[in-house]
Amino acid sequence: MTPTLDEILAGAIPFAVPLRVPFRGLHVREGMLIKGPSGWGEFAPFDDYDNERAGRWLGAAIEASWGTWPVSIRDSIEVNAIIPDVDSSRAGLLARETIGECGCSTIKVKVGRSLADDEARVVAVRDALDSAGVDGKIRLDANALWSLDQAITSLRRLRSYGIEYVEQPCADLNDMVRLRSEIDIPVAADEVIRLSGDPESVNLTGLVDYAILKPMTLGGAHATLRVAQSVGVPVVVSGSLDTGVGLSTSLAAAASLADLPLASGLGTGTLFERDLTDPSVLPRDGRIAVRRYSPDLDSLLAAADASSDERATWWRERLGAAYASYERSASHRRVEG
User: Fold this and answer.
1) pLDDT by residue (tens digit) across 215-250?
2) 69, 109, 260, 320: which one has the fewest Cβ atoms less than 10 Å from its Cβ?
3) Which fold has domain 5-69+299-336?
4) Which of the four CATH numbers 3.10.20.740, 3.20.20.120, 3.40.50.2000, 3.30.930.10 does domain 76-289 have?
5) What positions carry a catalytic annotation?
6) Inter-residue contact 11 to 34 (CB < 8 Å)
7) Predicted confidence band of residue 166 (pLDDT cuts 50, 70, 90)
């Protein structure tokens, strides 16, 4: 059953929650929670997402609040922590905190702007892992910031620190294929999937080593399973700076995959100053329990109050524009089916 726009807006609450450190240039994470008969969903596409891509995000929220999720075959998910583009001292502090308090042994480090800063950040994380006596893995995420030459130079420098894989090193898929032949670090694709006009048609067999699947950007847990079946390489489920409520969708997707060879990128709760859930959805012993996480009433009211009237109106209008795109996509899928 597809709810009407009026039904969705009747149960939609804008929120604004502060971040501990800037991420994607944000100091505050904004969006809307949607309450439906199945529970709570989260609609929080980043500002640079067009209506088509925001429509897929709304699809994930509608699936959570009005639909069903796939059957889980796991009750918890191993997750990585994440270190944003911060200075090396802050990176080391964040790494030590997440290792000691959350038990994560896999850490993703944002890179791509300055090789010197990138290396200092990676060194700080490696030192934190080694000091804790953890046989840890480091992932790199360049968010397509490197040219092919920059990627080759940077990865030849950084590979000595024990890199599990590099995520979306270049914007162009052909450059990523060439890079893969030049370095001995596995390559993972992210943007070429989630920014595609049709993620379910993307096939990366023989081109990259892993596919990063972000359920909120793909249309939900069921859509993630369809992409996993068609993409042709092992997948890593990852979040999109979701609150604990939104993480429920990604956990549901990860829990239902037959093959989940690596830790999922869902340890982003450590980046929030406070969450919509109480307690925050954080890893314990490097894992997060699979279940539907609902907002804490006091936390939701505080986050709703923190959203200005202007931004609340903006989000309602954005949801309306995304709904038109979602409805077209849903109608097309019904016709094809």
Assistant:
1) 999 999 999 999 999 999 999 999 999 999 999 999
2) 320
3) Enolase-like; domain 1 (3.30.390)
4) 3.20.20.120
5) 110, 214
6) yes
7) very high
